[in-house]
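The authors assume throughout that readers already know how a fold can be written as C-alpha cells. A single example would do more here than another paragraph of explanation. An entry of this sort, consisting of the sequence and the corresponding C-alpha cells, reads as follows:
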Amino acid sequence: MAKTYIYKARDRNGQLLSGNIMAESEAAVAAYIRDKGYFVTQIKVQKSGSFTRALLNSLQRVSIKDLAVFCRQFSTMVDAGLSLVACLSILIDQTYNPKLKTALQVIYKKVQEGETLSKAMTEHSNIFPDIMINMVEAGEVGGVLDEVLSRLATHFEKEHKLNERVKSAMVYPAVVIGMAILAVIFILTFVLPTFMKMFESMKVELPLPTRILLELSGFLTNYGVWLAAILVLAGYGLVLLARRPKYRIVMDQLMFVLPVFGLLWRKVAIARFSRTLSTLVRGGVPIITAIEVVKKTSGNLSMARALTTAQNSIREGLGLATPLGASNVFTPMVVQMVAIGEETGELDKMLEKIADFYDSDVDDMVSRLSSMMEPILIGVLGVIIGFIVISVMLPMFDVMSNFGASI
C-alpha cells in the first residue's frame, strides 16, 4: 500500500531540498530522487496528522483553474520535446495543490513502469474529468498529445471564466439577502423585545404595524429553532429527491423556466455543452464517446436525456441536429448551426462558435443582472427596515403626544 514519505536531499550545488512523495517503499522514493539528479540524505514515513488535518485533506479538491494551469504547463513541456516522465517530474515540483500533487506522484510511478498516461489518469477519475482522460487517450493514439493538452488548457480556462461569471451573478445578491435576513432576525429577537417591555409598562395601545412586528418577533423567539430545523430538513429532503431521476428531471426542467435566471441557466448549459463537445470532437474523440462524456459533465438531466436520444439517432445513421431540435432544450439557433456543421463537415468549428456566442451572451446577461439587482435589493431592504422603524416609532409618537396633552 502506498504511503507518504518525507525526504531531504541535496542538489549538485549542495543546496538542501525537502518535500513529500507517495510511494510503495523507501527504495521507490530513493529511486525517484536519484532520477532527478539529487543526493538522498533522509527518507522517513510521514506520520498521520490530526483528525482535523485528515478531514481538511479529504475536503480538498482540484479546481478547474488547477487543471487549466496543469494542462498549459504540461503542453508547453511536451511541445518542447521533454519525455512524459520528465514532464511529470517537473509538474510534481511545480504543483501546489496537495491532492493533485499526490495523484501526479502515483501517475509518475505508473508511467515509469510503462503504463500509458491516460490509463494512469483513469485511476484518479475523481480528479481528472472524463473529457480530459478521453482526449489524452486520443492524443496518445494520434501522437498529438501537446496539441490536445493545449486545447484542454483553453477549454478549462474558458470553463473557469464561465463559472466565475455565474458566481458573480449569484454571490452578491445571496450575500446581501443573507445579511439582511440575519439583521432582521437580530432586531426581532433581541432589540424589539426591549422596546415592547417598555411599551407594555406604559400601557400604550399598539398600532397594527407594531402588533404585526410583535407577533413575528414572538414567533421567532419561541419557534425560531424549530423553523431553522424544518428549513434544514426541507433542504436535505430536496437534495435526496434531486438524486432520484424522476424528480431530478422535473427540477432541471423547472430550472430552465424560472424567470430571468432560467434563461441564464439555459445559456450556461448550452455554452458548456458546445464547448465540451467541440473540444472532444476536435481532439479526435469519436462522436458517440464524446456525447457520452458531455452527458456526464452537463449537470442537467433533461439535457442528458436529449443527448441520449441524439446518441441513438447517430447510431441509426441519422444526424445530431434533429434530436436536439425535438428536445426543447436547445435553441433554434443551436440546432441550425449544428445542422450546418454536420453538412459542411465542420461540426467542431460550429460548436466553438456557438460556445463563444453564448459565453459572450452570458457575460452580458450577468452584467445586466448585476446592475438591475443592486437597486432592487436596496429598495427591498429599505422597505423592510422602514417598516421596522415605523413600527417601533409609532408607539413612541403616541407616548409623546399623550405626554404633551397631559401637560
About this structure: The chain has three domains: 3-57, 61-157, 161-407. The mean pLDDT is 81. The radius of gyration is 30 Å. The chain is about 75% helix and 5% strand.
